[in-house]
Amino acid sequence: MIFVDASVPRSVAAEIKKARSKTVWIGDVFPLDTKDTVWLAEAGRQGWLVITRDKKIRKRPGERRVITESGAGCFVLVYREDLKKSEIAEMILSFLEEMESLFERTPRPFIYTVTKNGDFKQYRL
Q1: What is the pLDDT of residue 110?
Q2: Where is the VapC45 PIN like domain positioned along the sequence (predicted)?
């Protein structure tokens, strides 16, 4: 299952779902005001591949702890310029196979950042 959090527009999640039917946007599973620690814990327990644009998730102690404890695997999209929704979807779809491959072969917990150019960097937990 691919889990897309609220930092990624629902329309982008819908585009991902066209390519991978087992994709959910946070609002499909949780109330939109659900704390990151709650959905991250569930994503880890369920073994969901997480896609987010929330760069701060790497640095907040509570979220890092939950990622570590639950065994979550997260991909954080990082880019400097503002992207249109269609560009965000294109970015994700361009690198989705690599995300899935890393998700399968990287021991969890982990956080990878993914740049617009397709550079993946594992963030140290």
Answers
A1: 97
A2: 2-77
- At position 123, the amino acid (one-letter code) is Y
Helices marked H in the chain — which ranges? 10-19, 26-29, 36-46, 61-70, 85-105
- The residue whose two tokens read 């691919």 is 2
Question: What is the distance between the alpha carbons of residues 55 and 64, in angstroms, rounded to a whole number?
Answer: 12
Q: Where are the domains of the chain?
A: 2-123
Q: What is the reported pLDDT for 22? A: 97
Cα–Cα distance between 93 and 48 in angstroms, integer? Answer: 17
Average pLDDT, rounded, for the chain: 96
**Average pLDDT for residues 116-121, to the nearest whole number?**
96
Query: How far apart, in whole angstroms, are the C-alpha atoms of residue 105 and residue 103?
Result: 6
- Tally Cβ neighbours within 10 Å of residue 120: 13
Specify the pairing of strand 120-123 against strand 73-78. Answer: unpaired
